[in-house]
Amino acid sequence: MRDVIVFSGSAHRSLARQICEHLGVPLSGVDIARFSNDCLQAQLLVNCRQRDVFIVQPLVPPTQEHLMELLMMIDAARGASAAHVTAVIPHYSYARSDKKDASRISLGGRLVADMLVTAGADRVITMALHAPQVHGFFSVPVDHLTAIGALASHFRDHGRDLTDHVVVSPDLGNAKTATLFARLLGLPVAAGNKQRMADDRVVIDSIVGDVENKRAIVLDDEIATGGSMIELLDKLGEAGCPGADVACTHGLFAGPAVERLNAHSLITEVVSTDTVPAPVGLHKHVVVSVAELFAEAIARIHVGESVSSLFDGVDPRHAPPQLRLPF
């Protein structure tokens, strides 16, 4: 059986190390160098000839820098005669660029997908694409993981009383995911009626569902600047909601997000996964790890087992408590 070799760029080495701990393999070294003309070079420091190579690199700020690192590591693995190269991209930030909603704009989600395949990626593992149709931009297999079960377990398995709670989606477009999350917790669901204005402002003019005198668990796929989340929390407060937990898969917390969330009186807890590095200074923040789920996906791909079966059935939708590793 081919060896499993795991490399990581500079975007999120702590997640890569946790994945390797679950797999029982070392994190192999990479030398990222910069020439005097500012060009990058990536050198893999472990032999990967005829081995199963997995390269962990979320696309987080500085996004373009980390994208180039990933492309160069993939190219290096292909040039070193790796048997199979899988790009493990916990956060695929270019999924936001999924449609032409203005004249003469680029379709970044598809362009970056093409670049990854051109560099030599045979497969991609990612999580919670902002737009699910981006899955179809890739011409190689994509394993699209979900953290919904792991997030639900955080609220369900720590003795928390969920009486009089309601799951709230920021918009109707995310309502399907929020409904699944609510089903795992046995809770009702509500949603914000969100509109994005011409100046890119987000306006939520109403809440669809009953939130009066109920504590909210607000679920979103990612939080960037926090503008939409703050707008929703304000609307929940106006509707009689006494408090809210905020949950998301990708906690980017960019720009003024940390300050905005820290200042909002309705928030009792902010929960995110470790697909991206944790922010500094965010109060009441809890990180739920998805390293074990990525490790299980890697193990199953390595031996040719189904990854989608991880998510069969109503529950669980997270990594099994014991990994069935073949090596």
Automatic annotation (TrEMBL):
- Catalytic function, reaction form: D-ribose 5-phosphate + ATP = 5-phospho-alpha-D-ribose 1-diphosphate + AMP + H(+)
Organism lineage reads as: Bacteria, Bacillati, Actinomycetota, Actinomycetes, Micrococcales
Membrane-spanning residues:
none
What sort of enzyme, by top EC class, is this? transferase
Q: Which CDD domains match?
A: PRTases_typeI
Q: Tell me the protein's name.
A: ribose-phosphate diphosphokinase
Keywords attached to this Swiss-Prot or TrEMBL record, sorted alphabetically, are: ATP-binding, Kinase, Nucleotide biosynthesis, Nucleotide-binding, Transferase
Could you tell me which PANTHER family the record lists for this protein? Answer: RIBOSE-PHOSPHATE DIPHOSPHOKINASE FAMILY MEMBER, RIBOSE-PHOSPHATE PYROPHOSPHOKINASE 2
Q: Which NCBIfam families does this chain map to? A: PRK01259.1, ribP_PPkin
Source organism of the structure: Mobilicoccus caccae
UniProt EC number: 2.7.6.1
Positions of the Ribose-phosphate pyrophosphokinase N-terminal domain = 5-120
